[in-house]
Structure formats: structure tokens, C-alpha cells
Amino acid sequence: xxxxxxxxxxxxxxxxxxxxxxxxxxxxxxxxxxxxxxxxxxxxxxxxxxxxxxxxxxxxxxxxxxxxxxxxxxxxxxxxxxxxxxxxxxxxxxxxxxxxxxxxxxxxxxxxxxxxxxxxxxxxxxxxxxxxxxxxxxxxxxxxxxxxxxxxxxxxxxxxxxxxxxxxxxxxxxxxxxxxxxxxxxxxxxxxxxxxxxxxxxxxxxxxxxxxxxxxxxxxxxxxxxxxxxxxxxxxxxxxxxxxxxxxxxxxxxxxxxxxxxxxxxxxxxxxxxxxxxxxxxxxxxxxxxxxxxxxxxxx
Length: 300
Fold this sequence. Notes:
Elements: H1 3-51, E1 55-61, E2 75-76, E3 79-80, H2 81-89, E4 97-102, H3 105-113, E5 118-120, H4 128-138, E6 145-148, H5 158-169, E7 176-182, E8 195-198, E9 204-208, E10 227-236, H6 237-243, H7 250-255, H8 259-264, E11 269-273, H9 284-296
Parallel strand pairs: 1-4, 1-6, 4-5, 7-11
Antiparallel strand pairs: 2-3, 6-10, 7-10, 8-9, 8-10
Helix pairs in contact: 4-6
């Protein structure tokens, strides 16, 4: 028998035995690490939910809309649109308080007449997020999450409000959450219908008034699941307080979309996908569409 061969065989066997003995340990270590990561993610989500427990809903409403002046007061089947939005929002289970933030006394008087809480805000704000920030500062109570509920969404589902709140509570690395639904083909090229794209983890990549994604044929692809952005959005209250201090960004100004300032400054935004047939009232022509839908659903 060849001693070298025997020695080599023995060494090889010992090496294999050593590797074999370590493999289960590495596998166990890998499994333990994976379990630890999952446990950490769950713990972080729970801590985030606890830390972001107090929630206020704010409905920003201004009279001087360039496309539709006096929009919050327009009658929707006999009730002012702002009242219908308020009544729907009151059904959300995650809100600890709900207020209307406005710069107009006619809107304030209307809201007070149906029992809403109202905060008067400056006329100088450029968007609803800035108005929500002022309202948050005026509230006497501390809140962790602020939900910006668009006043022109008279059929907003309370479940969507609860959904964006829970999304932010369960996503510690996001400072902003919003919702999107399937885009109807007839709305694909309408600049008043804001589209969005998200990554595989559900974080926003971009928002646009144009169709996104846009394929090289230049036509709407009827098989692609385009997303329509819904106006509702929620913010971490600490982030909202610093939002107005962030400088305007080129994409935000070009598209006239406040969400883009958040993304351009490098913050994360969680997007939930929901089923939502109705859209907001952007123009006078939308009023008839909303009323028609309400009649179909027997909503009085």
C-alpha cells in the first residue's frame, strides 16, 4: 500500500469530515440570522406602530382654486362637498381627531354649521401639505401621524384612510404614505389624473401628470397595470414639521406635485394599492360624474 496515497486519503477524509461537521452549524447560523432579521423587522414595525400611535386627520380646504373656485362648497346631491368628505372621514377607525384647515371664512362657517372642528390657516400656502403643517402646529395636542384627507374626495372610503395610517405605522423607514388604484384607460392621458410607479417593495419611485411608464410605441398598453394616485397621504408628524423648510425641487415645480419634493430630497414613501372606483372632483365636469356614481350606489 502506498503510504502517500493513504496519507492523502486520510487527509481528504478528515477534511471532508471537518467540512461536513461544520455545514449543519453554518446552516443553523444562517437560519438563526434570518430568524433574527425577521424578528427585528417585526419588532421595528411594532415599535413604530407604538411610537406613531396618535393620529389626526386634517382636511385642507381653500376657496381660491385656479381650476374650480369655491370647490369645497359646491353641492353634491344637496350637501356641500366638504361636508360629504368630513362625514366619510369620520368613519375611519384610526383617527383620534379630525379637523378642517381653511383660509376662507365662508368655508369655515359652512363646516361649523354641520359640526366640524375648524382651524383657520394662512392664505399663502401653495399646497395642502403646507396647510396641514400649520394646522398641526396650532393643535394643542401632540400627534405622531397626520393624514392629509383631500376635501375634493366626497366618496373617500374610511378603509383607505385606515390603510395609509397602518402602512406608515408598519414601515419605520418611511416618512410618508399614500394610496393608488388602477388607472382607467380614459384617464391615461388626463394631466389632472396623477399617475405613479412603485418598486417591488411598494415604495414610490415617481409621480407624474403624464402617463408612466411610457412605452416606445407611444400608446397606452391595455394590458399594463398603470396606477392612479389618490390624493390621500399621511406623514410622520416630525417630518411634516420640517417639510416646509425643504427647498423646492425642479421635478416638483415642473410637475406641480408636492410628493416629488419628498422623493427628490431622498425620503421614502410607502404606497398601498386599493380598489377605488371614484376619483376626486378636479373640475366642474367631475361633479356630475360623482353624483351619477352616488345615484348608482344609492348614496343620498
